[in-house]
């Protein structure tokens, strides 16, 4: 273990892994992640407190609806109460809310729907509001239909729900796959965001490491023993290794927690719903049998291989840039003016993620997944949808090629930068360093 | 030990080294002297192969400087430091291994040095918990641990406290006696006069003079004499530079174009002369002389 670059990798790895914050982050992150996955399920299943709602129903729309066990309805006699009295009654009672439905002049559903009021002793919960709205919508709808001389029963019977089964037509006959667009969208989106997060997280650590060596003035001692480029690459590889280990622990821990919770603790919740973020496509409409066909239609080896490749490719590319950046400044606070141009491509890649998900083979998707500064994120989003091999090969070649180019340039800036102190560096200055 | 031939280095439009040639003899304690910005650090970084010269050659021993030679050099830069969060012992071993020592070898040597400099208690401490003086000792140990044949100290005594300065001077002298060649680079020329036997004076990227310290000082003697008399005198007609009273008598320093024998005759005729000597110029006197008047021809 005496090759200098191995020694550097070892040090970078061990000093980070031994830190208490590493342990904390590594253990806490899966708990948080699992919480994010589990929380919607738990929250949805958590029974909200039962509430009683007073109803002052002047046009008698809701009657004789009694509500549910959760939201019980109690009617006030419109002959005895007006709105002010009803409000006072709510204040003095132990009931939770007051729903006021005015009659207006005559029986005009359009007037009624605009003037319904709901008062709560506390804030009105979203569930209660939705419950009331749904109830009223249905009643008013029916009233309108009756006014038009249509039997609501007929309308209910004629309602049709269409569910199209979509397939991807392969090149060869008999190679039709069940289209799994929602699943692919979700997978692509999540993979892209994970890549973004990892690249950013670890590349910034490389920058911090470089700044630390510079400000602690150890760097000149080190580079009198190893080439500056060896130090830079050792740092990038060492921190990358931390990333890999951390990621593996996260995957294993998250998986374990998720499995334990979903199988043993709350099995009934997980049987019902597929938890996802708010942006994720709604999978609950898809029937169970189809999911397996969908999962099978995704080329997981390619997606997983792509994830590993684009994580490393993107991380190496950006960490070399961040290393050069770190070398040029004396403290992290000075990094702002350089950070934005360097991170802009990644931010653009994230902001166009939605376009790519919606049109994974369109021009935006194509170009974003070719340009090496955006391809790690953009291509990752495309991969679950299936990408022609030549495009994958081109994107990968461009990324690797650019990486070597950037390392060469970053190495030059780094070599000069780490020995410069107390100088406010400009872009022009950085350009000059390339020629030293 | 180190021989540089016409070494140049330029940073953009700024010429750091304009073709310097130096010869640092094996076993010497060599003072690389010059004002700030003269090119000392640029040259040191070339010896350490941190940067490469634009042109010219540096020889290590009798062959060209090679990448492997860094294991034979110990370098304490002017901008020096340690990883603050790392433990001292671990850090010393890491730096020694980077210089090519095996883990076991590094450990046994480090322990030896820690005992010698009375710093055994540092081993398990983090650098950020050390005082400045303690950290300096650690830096010194990391510089010498791999038994380098060539030791390079850039501005070694700036920031060192007096106790450490003396301790380290003593250790450096000892390492020199054991065979190491030592290079001191500093702009504070007086600070190395007592320990250097060779010097190279550089200014604005050029070597102004190089050679054994005493020879250079003798070569640049400029008619300054010091003599001691038993009683205090005014010496009208002499260019008196300074006066000093000691219990043996009154010492007067003068500058004169006359030959010493003439001055002695004159003084002895009217005074009780206790001593007379020609004063060697200090290195900074030599430096100022050269900057003002140019180098003195060899045979003057």
Produce the secondary structure layout.
The complex is a heterodimer of chains A (436) and B (300).
Chain A: H1 4-17, H2 20-45, E1 51-57, E2 71-75, H3 83-92, E3 97-101, H4 109-114, E4 117-120, H5 126-147, H6 152-158, E5 167-168, E6 177-178, H7 181-215, H8 219-223, H9 228-265, H10 267-272, H11 288-297, H12 300-328, H13 336-351, H14 353-358, H15 363-368, H16 375-382, H17 389-417, H18 427-433
Parallel strand pairs in A: 1-2, 1-3
Antiparallel strand pairs in A: 3-4, 5-6
Helix pairs in contact in A: 1-9, 2-9, 7-9, 7-12, 7-16, 9-12, 12-16, 12-17
Chain B: E1 2-11, E2 14-24, E3 29-33, H1 40-47, E4 55-60, E5 63-64, E6 73-76, H2 88-98, H3 103-116, H4 132-144, E7 150-154, H5 162-177, E8 181-186, E9 198-203, E10 206-212, H6 213-219, E11 224-229, E12 239-246, E13 249-255, H7 260-270, E14 273-278, H8 283-293
Parallel strand pairs in B: 3-8, 3-9, 6-7, 7-8
Antiparallel strand pairs in B: 1-2, 1-4, 4-5, 9-10, 11-13, 11-14, 12-13
What can you see in these coordinates?
By secondary structure, chain A is mainly alpha-helical. Chain A folds into two domains: 51-152, 3-Layer(aba) Sandwich (D-Maltodextrin-Binding Protein, domain 2); 180-433, no CATH class. Chain A contains 18 helices and six strands. In chain A, strands 2-1-3-4 form a four-stranded mixed beta sheet, sandwiched between helices. In chain A, strands 5-6 form a two-stranded antiparallel ribbon. In chain A, helix 9 crosses helix 12 (300-328) and helix 12 (300-328) packs parallel to helix 17 (389-417). In chain A, 31% of the residues are buried. Chain B is an alpha/beta fold. Helices cover 30% and strands 30% of the residues of chain B. Chain B has helices spanning 40-47, 88-98, 103-116, 132-144, 162-177, 213-219, 260-270, 283-293; strands at residues 2-11, 14-24, 29-33, 55-60, 63-64, 73-76, 150-154, 181-186, 198-203, 206-212, 224-229, 239-246, 249-255, 273-278. In chain B, strands 6-7-8-3-9-10 form a six-stranded mixed beta sheet, sandwiched between helices. Chain B has a four-stranded antiparallel beta sheet with strand order 2-1-4-5, covered by helices on one side. Chain A binds chain B through residues 1-2, 4, 7-8, 11, 15, 212-213, 216-218, 220-226, 228, 415, 419, 421, 432, 435-436, and chain B through 11-12, 45, 48-51, 70-71, 73, 75-77, 79-86, 94-95, 97-100, 102-103, 139, 142.
């Amino acid at each position: 273990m005496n090759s200098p670059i191995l020694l550097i990798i070892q040090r970078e790895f061990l000093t980070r892994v031994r830190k208490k914050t590493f342990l904390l982050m590594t253990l806490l992150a899966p708990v948080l992640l699992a919480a994010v996955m589990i929380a919607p399920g738990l929250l949805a299943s958590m029974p909200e407190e039962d509430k009683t709602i007073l109803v002052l129903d002047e046009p008698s729309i809701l009657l004789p609806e009694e509500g549910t066990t959760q939201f019980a309805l109690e009617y006030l006699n419109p002959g005895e109460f007006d709105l002010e009295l009803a409000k006072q009654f709510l204040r003095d009672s132990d009931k939770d809310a007051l729903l006021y439905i005015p009659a207006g002049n005559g029986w005009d559903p359009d007037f009624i729907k605009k003037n319904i009021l709901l008062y709560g002793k506390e804030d009105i919960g979203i569930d209660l509001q939705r419950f009331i709205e749904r109830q009223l919508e249905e009643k008013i709808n029916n009233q309108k239909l009756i006014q038009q001389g249509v039997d609501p029963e007929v309308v209910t019977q004629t309602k049709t729900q269409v569910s199209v089964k979509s397939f991807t037509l392969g090149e060869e006959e008999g190679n039709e796959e069940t289209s799994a667009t929602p699943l692919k969208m979700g997978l692509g989106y999540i993979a892209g965001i994970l890549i973004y997060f990892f690249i950013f997280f670890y590349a910034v650590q490389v920058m911090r490491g470089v700044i630390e060596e510079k400000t602690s003035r150890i760097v000149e001692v080190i580079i009198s023993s190893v080439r500056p480029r060896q130090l830079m690459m050792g740092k990038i590889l060492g921190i990358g290794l931390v990333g890999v280990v951390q990621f593996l622990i996260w995957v294993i821990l998250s998986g374990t927690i998720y499995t334990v919770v979903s199988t043993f603790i709350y099995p009934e919740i997980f049987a019902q719903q597929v938890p996802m973020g708010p942006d994720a496509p709604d999978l609950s409409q898809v029937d169970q049998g189809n999911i397996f066909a969908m999962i099978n239609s995704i080329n997981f080896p390619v997606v997983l291989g792509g994830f590993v490749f684009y994580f490393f490719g993107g991380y190496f590319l950006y960490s070399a840039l961040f290393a050069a950046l770190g070398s040029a400044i004396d403290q992290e606070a000075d990094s702002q003016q350089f950070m934005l141009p360097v991170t802009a491509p990644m931010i653009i890649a994230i902001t166009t993620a939605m376009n790519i998900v919606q049109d994974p083979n369109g021009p935006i998707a194509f170009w974003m997944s070719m340009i090496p500064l955006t391809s790690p994120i953009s291509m990752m989003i495309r991969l679950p949808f299936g990408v022609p091999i030549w495009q994958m090969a081109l994107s990968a070649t461009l990324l690797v090629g650019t990486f070597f180019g950037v390392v060469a340039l970053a190495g030059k800036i780094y070599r000069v930068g780490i020995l410069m102190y107390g100088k406010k560096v400009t872009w022009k200055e950085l350009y000059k360093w390339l020629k030293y | 030990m180190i021989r540089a031939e016409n070494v140049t280095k330029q940073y953009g439009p700024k010429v750091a080294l304009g073709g310097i040639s130096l010869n640092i003899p094996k076993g010497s304690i060599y003072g690389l002297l010059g004002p700030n910005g003269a090119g000392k650090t640029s040259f040191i970084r070339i010896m350490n192969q941190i940067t490469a010269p634009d042109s010219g050659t540096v020889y290590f021993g009798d062959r060209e400087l090679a990448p492997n030679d860094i294991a034979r050099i110990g370098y304490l830069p002017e901008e020096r430091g340690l990883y603050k969060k790392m433990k001292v012992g671990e850090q010393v071993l890491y730096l020694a291994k980077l210089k090519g020592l095996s883990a076991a070898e590094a450990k046994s040597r480090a322990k030896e040095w820690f005992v010698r400099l009375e710093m055994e208690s540092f081993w398990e401490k983090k650098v950020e918990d050390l005082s400045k003086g303690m950290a300096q000792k650690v830096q010194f140990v990391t510089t010498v641990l791999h038994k380098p044949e060539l030791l390079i100290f850039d501005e070694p005594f700036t920031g060192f406290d007096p106790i450490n300065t003396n301790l380290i001077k003593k250790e450096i002298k000892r390492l020199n006696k054991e065979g190491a060649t030592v290079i001191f680079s500093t702009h504070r020329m007086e600070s190395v006069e007592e320990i250097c036997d060779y010097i190279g004076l550089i200014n604005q990227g050029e070597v102004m003079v190089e050679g054994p310290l005493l020879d250079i000082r003798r070569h640049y003697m400029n008619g300054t004499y010091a003599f001691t008399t038993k009683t205090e005198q005014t010496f009208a007609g002499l260019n008196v530079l300074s006066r000093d009273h000691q219990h043996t008598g009154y010492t007067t320093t003068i500058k004169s174009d006359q030959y010493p024998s003439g001055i002695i005759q004159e003084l002895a005729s009217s005074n009780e002369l206790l001593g007379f000597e020609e004063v060697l110029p200090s290195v900074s006197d030599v430096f100022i002389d050269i900057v003002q008047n140019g180098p003195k021809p060899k045979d003057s």
